[in-house]
Specification:
The complex is a heterodimer of chains A (about 240) and B (about 625). Chain A is of the alpha+beta class and about 240 residues long. Chain A has 7 helices and 11 strands. A 5-stranded mixed β-sheet of chain A has the order 2-1-5-3-4, with helices on both faces. Chain A has a 4-stranded antiparallel β-sheet with strand order 8-9-10-11. Chain B is of the alpha/beta class and about 625 residues long. In chain B, about 40% of the residues lie in helices and about 15% in strands. Classes of the chains: A alpha+beta (about 240), B alpha/beta (about 625).
Chain lengths: ~240, ~625
């Protein structure tokens, strides 16, 4: 058992736990955009930074990654923490001016405007990497990845072409914190990542409910007969 | 196969006898710099000429690694530092070959090819007399211009691989103690104590362990590691074998950027030859210890010089750093204990084992031991590689070894530590060059890049240049670095274009602090340094750009106008032909004028005018 304080409050944690997990459990409000409990932490968005004091030393760390230690003092809203957090939000406001989520979090932190020129080519993507990770680890197909570096970095399918392995499941859409990824179902067809998917029709209610490729993928993985999977969740 | 010290000595003796049979040895620098100046043609032509004179048995012409004085390449040295010829073949290759042949035949010293001293009249025969070399203490570079890097026998004949043999007789823990006591600190930038790192890696749990040489040198203007890998690859390999034995690792990686094809080529040959001789592989010197090295070629991303990004790249993943709350010595490559050191750090190791830690500890300052290689570039007369003891002053490096500023212009600043470093102004030229002093000045040692700037360099433009580099080289993983550095660039770029606003400098300082505190890796954390150090020492220059819309150095094009002073112009016709856009008109002995509508503000006319008639404002 590890003992330390968060904003002066004594807390206990298991060895190897990250500060963020303990803080959330204890009711402290630390904003995050790239953290997800099924996919772990990368430390990309830098919103969850906190100040850790150890004796005379203090440093800013990402709470989603920093393992708890005995005797440390964690401050979730020190002046340095707020400087980093507000700067990150102001920078993201300029990158994704149309993102309601960013605007909301920024406003909550007293950032209602950005001094920087607004981008018009980044959409709502903040490069949190959750779509890439959920595709690889939760779905198991790795249709997405990052290309480029620096400001030109972006999420894409290989060479920006329709991915051979994408099953059109939409897990990336569901996990995206800002609603950046475009997916549309119309007339029995789903469009996502520039790929066209035929939607399967439920034999009972006759509604379109999932891409055929996704059902085939599940059938292959689980051994469940495709006929069973064709029945939509509502009719099961 | 070499399995004993006797066999190693035997091979050394054999080589010494072989080279001793030649009456003359000619060493041609075939580092990247000299090769691009035409060294390989000189090598071929000289060999042809020697064959034609039937002197092949008597004269040995060797391709060596970088001699350091890149400004004056191609460099040729006769014998044991007897004669140094410079810029050979630059005027007329055939003529120079004939001159070289004279020296080869009867030792005649050719005046025309000698290095000219400061006063232009004194010509130096031996490199030992040239201030550039005389002021150096060459340890890791000692054999760079001496041996043929593609011949393992040569390295062995100069005592190579004896340190491996000696180390294998020692207890691994004792080796680590030696490295700790020597005071060796990492040459890659961080300056962390090498021995302490080795001990942590040895003590970490997990198998296998890895040792890695970081040869991803990416700072603009830096070529220390490249010259070492090209000029003396076995020294790096030898250091890594010793490190592997001390740490308990049998697997080594050398990470080299693919833009260094010659380094990759020579390292590959060196590894292959070491394997052939049994100096790499299983059971080295019959000790029971085995060690293998693989080369990993990097794609050239600057961020891959960061240890965790480098390891990610070796693993086949995107070169992105990760947080180091758990150190790489515990969980590094494939989450196994991994010890990464810079190429130059590894090359120091055999010397410490051979000569003892006390020797290394005796060089340098109390906190920075040994020597350090710097690549001295920019507006300095003698650009090239210098190796100096830690603690030498910037003054000595720039004015003694470097020969001062080109065209005897006024020194303005020296940029150390690459894009993560900073600019140091003239008042600190007497500061000793060591890890801690440079950090105190707001710069850093870094891997050893040193860019000298004169009065014609604009410090805002310099900051702009480094920011542009860092915008492009940020991996893009974390928000402060990816988004923040490009916004810093936008602000500084605007200042250079004459669109700076009051408050921009304070805004830069605030944003810089947030980036330093909030970025994930050392690249982001140090990215604001070039801006912060230029603001610290040259704040006025920023203010003049912003308030008066003027660039005092005449560099920022939007803020500079070149004119010719009719009082001073003699109509010498020097500037007009040099103008790249032909916008200067005027007759001989009559006042010239610049057509401002065509002028691209390159400053060439200013630089060539001998009467101070060209002015900028």
């Amino acid at each position: 058992m590890v003992e330390f304080t968060i904003n002066g409050k004594k807390v206990e944690a298991e060895k190897d736990e990250a500060i963020l997990d303990v803080a959330m459990r204890e009711g402290f409000d630390i904003p995050t955009l790239c953290y997800h409990d099924t996919l772990g932490s990368d430390g990309r968005c830098r919103l969850c930074v906190v100040e850790v004091r150890k004796g005379n030393r203090k440093r800013i760390v990402t709470s989603c990654l920093y393992p708890v230690e005995n005797g440390i003092e964690v401050l979730t809203e020190s002046p340095d923490v707020l400087l980093v957090r507000k700067t990150v939000l102001e920078l993201l406001l300029a990158r994704c001016p149309d993102s309601e989520v960013i605007r909301y979090i920024a406003k909550e932190h007293g950032v209602s405007n950005t001094r920087y020129a607004k981008d018009n080519d980044k959409g709502k993507c903040i490069l949190c990497n959750l779509c890439v990770k959920t595709c690889e680890f939760n779905v198991g197909v790795t249709a997405l990845g990052m290309s480029g570096k620096g400001p030109a970095k972006k999420v894409t399918t290989p060479y920006g072409e329709p991915s051979r392995v994408c099953i059109g499941c939409g897990a990336c859409v569901a996990i995206c914190p800002t609603g950046h990824i475009y997916m549309e179902d119309r007339d029995g067809v789903r469009m996502i990542w520039n790929k066209r998917f035929e939607l399967a029709r439920c034999p009972k209610c006759n509604r379109y409910h999932a891409p055929v490729e996704q059902l085939e993928f599940i059938a292959g993985k689980s051994g469940t007969p495709i006929e069973e999977l064709l029945i939509c969740p509502d009719c099961k | 196969m070499i399995a004993s010290i006797e066999q190693l000595d035997g091979m050394a003796a054999e080589y010494k006898q072989k080279t001793g049979a030649y009456s003359k040895i000619v060493k041609i620098c075939c580092g990247t710099g000299c090769i691009s100046s035409g060294a390989l043609r000189v090598y071929e032509k000289l060999n042809e000429a020697i064959a034609a004179e039937r002197l092949t048995d008597k004269v040995l012409v060797k391709k060596t690694g970088c001699h350091g004085l890149c400004e004056r390449g191609p460099i040729i040295v006769f014998g044991d530092d007897e004669i140094l010829y410079q810029t050979v073949g630059k005027r007329n290759l055939d003529d120079d070959i004939r001159l070289l042949l004279k020296t080869v035949k009867d030792g005649t010293v050719v005046e025309n090819l000698l290095y000219k001293g400061e006063d232009k009249t004194k010509r130096h025969v031996s490199p030992r007399d040239i201030p550039f070399y005389a002021g150096q203490t060459r340890v890791v570079l000692a054999l760079n211009g001496v041996l043929d890097p593609e011949d393992i026998g040569e390295y062995i004949s100069f005592g190579g691989y004896r340190a491996v043999h000696k180390a294998l007789q020692m207890d691994p823990v004792q080796i680590i103690e030696w490295i700790q006591k020597s005071g060796l600190r990492g040459r890659g930038g961080g300056g962390f104590l090498t021995g302490t790192k080795w001990r942590s890696c040895r003590d970490a749990s997990g198998e296998p362990r890895y040792v890695i040489a970081n040869g991803d040198e990416g700072d603009p203007g830096a070529f220390m590691d490249r010259s070492l890998m090209e000029g003396n690859p076995h020294a790096v390999i030898e250091g890594m074998i010793i490190g592997g034995y001390a740490i308990g690792s049998n697997h080594g990686f050398i990470y080299v950027r693919d833009e260094y094809p010659l380094a990759v080529h020579r390292l590959s040959i060196a590894i292959e030859k070491a394997k052939e001789q049994g100096l790499l592989g299983a059971n080295i010197f019959n000790s029971g210890f085995g060690f293998d090295i693989k080369i990993y070629r990097g794609g050239g991303a600057f961020v891959c010089g960061e240890s965790t990004a480098l390891m990610s790249s070796i693993e086949g993943k995107t070169g992105e750093p990760r947080a180091k709350y758990i150190h790489t010595v515990e969980k590094g490559l494939w989450d196994k204990p991994s010890n990464l050191n810079n190429v130059e750090t590894w090359a120091c190791v055999p010397h410490i084992i051979n000569r003892g830690w006390e020797w290394f500890d005796s060089i340098g300052t109390p906190q920075s031991k040994g020597t350090k290689v710097f690549s001295l570039v920019g507006k300095v007369k003698n650009t090239g590689l210098v190796e100096v003891p830690m603690g030498i002053t910037l003054n000595e490096i720039i004015f003694k070894l470097g020969g001062g500023i080109q065209g005897d212009k006024r020194f303005k600043a020296v940029q150390t530590g690459g894009p993560s470093g900073g600019c140091i102004p003239g008042e600190y030229l007497d500061m000793p060059v060591d890890f801690d002093s440079l950090t105190k000045l707001g710069s850093m040692m870094g891997s050893g890049g040193m860019i000298v700037m004169d009065e014609r360099d604009c410090m805002v433009d310099v900051a702009r240049y480094f920011l542009k580099f860092l915008v492009d080289e940020s991996c893009g993983k974390c928000t402060p670095c990816r988004e923040g550095v490009r916004r810093m660039f936008e602000i500084v770029d605007n200042i250079c274009k004459g669109n700076g606003l009051k408050g921009d400098v304070e805004h830069l300082e605030e944003l810089a602090r947030a980036i330093q505190l909030g970025s994930l890796c050392a690249l982001g954390q140090s990215a604001p340094n070039p801006v912060l150090s230029t603001i610290k020492y040259f704040r006025d220059e920023y203010n003049i750009h912003i308030e008066q819309k003027r660039c005092p150095a005449g560099v920022c094009k939007a803020l500079t106008t070149f004119t010719i002073d009719p009082e001073k112009c003699t109509g010498c016709m020097r500037c007009a032909p040099e103008c790249p856009v032909a916008c200067i008109s005027g007759e001989k002995k009559k006042v010239h004028t610049i057509d401002r509508s065509k002028c691209i503000k390159c400053g060439t006319c200013y630089d060539v005018c001998r009467f101070g008639a060209v002015k900028y404002e």
